[in-house]
Amino acid sequence: MSTAWVAALIGLADDHLILGHRLSEWCGHAPMLEEDLAMPNIALDLIGQARGLYTYAGELEGAGRDEDALAFGRLERAYRNLLICELPNGDFAQTMLRQFYFASFMHLFWQKVERSTDTTLAAIAAKAVKEAQYHRRHCAEWVVRLGDGTDESARRMHEAVTLLAPYTGEFFIADPEASGAVAAGVLPQIQTLQPAWQADVEQVFAAAKLALPQAVYAQKGGRRGLHTEAMGHLLAQLQFMQRSFPDMTW
Amino acid sequence: MVEFQARRAWEAAAAVLDPEVPAVTVADLGILRAVDIDDQGRAVAQVTPTYSGCPAVLAIELAIEAALLQAGFDPVIERVLAPAWTTDWITEEGREKLSAYGIAPPVGGSASKRALFGEIAVACPRCASVDTSKLSEFGSTACKAQYRCNACHEPFDYFKCI
Q1: Residue A190 C-beta-side C-alpha neighbours within 13 Å
Q2: Lowest CB count within 10 Å: A175, B3, B43, B138, which one?
Q3: Residue A31: which domain range?
Q4: CB A22 within 8 A of CB A39
Q5: Contact (CB, 8 A) for B137 and A141
């Protein structure tokens, strides 16, 4: 047990909170009822995973911060999420492609963490791995359906591929705050997940008749608290109640 | 004496109904793992969440706490994550109650990926036909998917196998 990787766990929790918040914006706006159920359900899973991670990070840190303090009480620069998680939803194709990328990545990630030397993280992973697998499958089906669908759906999916291309490289950039955890066998070496993720994307893209994106410069900075313009707007909504009425409860 | 008290505490806590599926108790679902009396005489209830994002977890914990208080115990709720909850924790009685309530219980073991993804026949809880089709992978709560029976045409919830 160590405080050395608290920041790494907070970054991981931030990925899930911020993406979960983004997905929740679809509630009531999805193109069909089934998806209006699916996206908030996935969002709930992500936020639930974030809660477990925040709570544990707060315990390790030992500074009295609980899940609410971490989720709602920090300034923008203190959030360490990957940039792809904070991007605006765009259209349904863009949301589904992002969710597929993330779920595929997390499914590989949690499989490694299931064998973590840290038993609490292993327990969180044991639940999350099945949830990520279910999300991956659901979103991959949509990538195929839209990519190999009508002219309009294919055009939108192609646009989504181009739009998101600069944001997937950050998945595999090692977080310096995680180096101690990696050395201790608590978290996986992130670069090792890339070949399997790439293979998964290639397989789904082939079924979707989508061309793989051109190699482009990877946008990065999320893990250092350097965010896109969208982040401040997202936090304004996410934190509104706690900022207006600190420590409020329902 | 402690053993008797522990059994009484278990019975009080185990009778709590799931707030989302009030046909089954928290014991039927395997959410309530154990209730023990600790050396200070408190009733320690071990509760495990089904899904990471299950919004009912807090309501379930409060309900168990209230049930133990009402039975005269000093309750402590302990949230346990390991071993992870799977649908295998649902008791045989729980599965029968789910079916009677109109929710198809999970088919096969949790380790089965085909079961998780609904690639095996789910029987209609009303007419028992296995000629059913999946309408939606996500349903009214995190733990359910939506199905329709092609024989009696009734839609029904399926408790996902996870």
Answers
A1: 17
A2: B3
A3: 6-244
A4: no
A5: no
**Letter for the amino acid at B38?**
D
Contacts 24+ apart (CB under 8 A), A224-228: A224/A80, A225/A76, A225/A77, A225/A78, A225/A79, A225/A80, A226/A77, A227/A76, A227/A77, A227/A79, A227/A83, A227/A86, A228/A83, A228/A86, A228/A87
Interface confidence, given as ipTM, is 0.78
**Interface contact flag, B81 A52, Cβ < 8 Å:** yes
Distance CA B48, CA A221 (A): 36
Burial of A63 (0-12, 13-18, 19+ CB in 10 A): exposed
User: Is residue A218, in this structure, part of any structural domain at all?
Assistant: yes
Q: State the CATH number of the domain containing residue A10.
A: 1.20.1260.10
CA A138/CA A127 separation, integer angstroms: 17
Q: Do residue A51 and residue B138 have CB atoms under 8 angstroms apart? A: no
The pTM score is: 0.90
Whether residue B116 is predicted with pLDDT greater than 60 in this model: the reply is no
Residue-wise pLDDT for B71-105, tens only, equals 999 999 999 988 888 889 999 999 999 999 999 99
Residue numbers of B between 10 and 49 with CB closer than 8 Å to A: 49
